[in-house]
Amino acid sequence: MGAVLQDQGKVAGHSIDTVRALLHDLRQPLAAILLLAGTEGGDAGWKMDGIAGQARWLADLVDTVLSEAAADEIEATDVTLLAEAAVQRARATAACEITVQAEPAPDVWARPVALSRALACVVDNAVRAAGEGGHVRVCVRSDADGVHLTVVDDGPGLGQVSPRTSLGLTTTRAMVAACNGAFVIHTAREGGVVADICLAPAALRSVAS
Questions:
Q1: Which of 101, 107, 132, 176 is in the most buried spot, having the most CB atoms within 10 Å?
Q2: What is the CATH topology of the domain spanning 2-208?
C-alpha cells in the first residue's frame, strides 16, 4: 500500500511540475498579446500578425502538453527558422535589442515544440538580464560537436539577476534532454551570460539509423 501511495505521489508531483512549467512558458506570449492588443495607434495589420503568431505558438504548446508530448515527435528541425521565430516573439515585450546571427547550419534531430520552449526560456532569461537598453544575441552555428543555438546577453552575469522563477532553467534542461541535446550556461569573459544548446545534425541520425 505504501508503494502505491508513493507511486501516486510521484505521478501527482509530475503533473504539478508539468502544469507549473506550462504556466511559466505561457507567461511571455500572453504578455505580448496583451501589450499588442492594448497599444493605441500604429499599424493594425502588424499588431494583428503579432497577436496571431503568439496565439499559434500558445496553441501548439498547449496541444503538445495536453497530449503528453505525443504530438511533438522527433524530426528534422530547421534551427534558424526556430531561432528567428523565438526572437520575433520576444521582441514584442522586450525593452532591449534582440538580434539573430545565423551561419549556415544543417537541420537538427529534435522535438520542435520542446526545442522552442527551451529556447524561449533562455531568451526570456537573457532579456531580463540585459535590461532596458541592453542587447541579446541569438546565434546559430555548427562545429564538430553539433549544431549550436547560443544566446548571449550583456547583463551583469550569473547570480546577479534575481530569478523570476526556478522553472526557467529546469524547463530548459528537460526540453533539451527530450531532444537528446546538451545545455550549458556560463558567464562570458567580457561579462553577461552565454547559454548554449547543442544538438546532433539530422543527417547523423539518419546515417546511424
A1: 176
A2: Heat Shock Protein 90 (3.30.565)
Looking at per-residue pLDDT, the higher value among 34 and 208 belongs to 34
pTM score = 0.68
- Surface-to-core class of residue 126, CB atoms within 10 Å of its CB (0-12 exposed, 13-18 middle, 19+ buried): buried
Closest CA to 149 of 199, 209, 91: 199
Q: Taking a C-beta distance cutoff of 8 angstroms, is the pair 166, 186 a contact? A: no
What is the per-residue DSSP string for 110-175?
A: E-HHHHHHHHHHHHHHHHHHH-TT-EEEEEEEEETTEEEEEEEE-SS-TTSS--S-THHHHHHHHH
Please report, for the chain, the start and end positions of each structural domain, with discontinuous segments joined by +.
Answer: 2-208
- How is residue 117 written as a grid cell? 520552449
Q: What is the pLDDT of residues 17-37, one digit of tens each?
A: 555 666 666 666 777 777 777
The H-or-E segment that residue 38 falls in is helix 2-38
CB 79 within 8 A of CB 149: yes
Q: 61-84: per-residue pLDDT in tens?
A: 666 665 655 567 889 999 999 999
Name which of 181, 83, 58 is nearest 136 in CA terms. Answer: 83
Residue 152 DSSP SS3: strand
What proportion of the chain, given as a percentage, has pLDDT over 70?
72
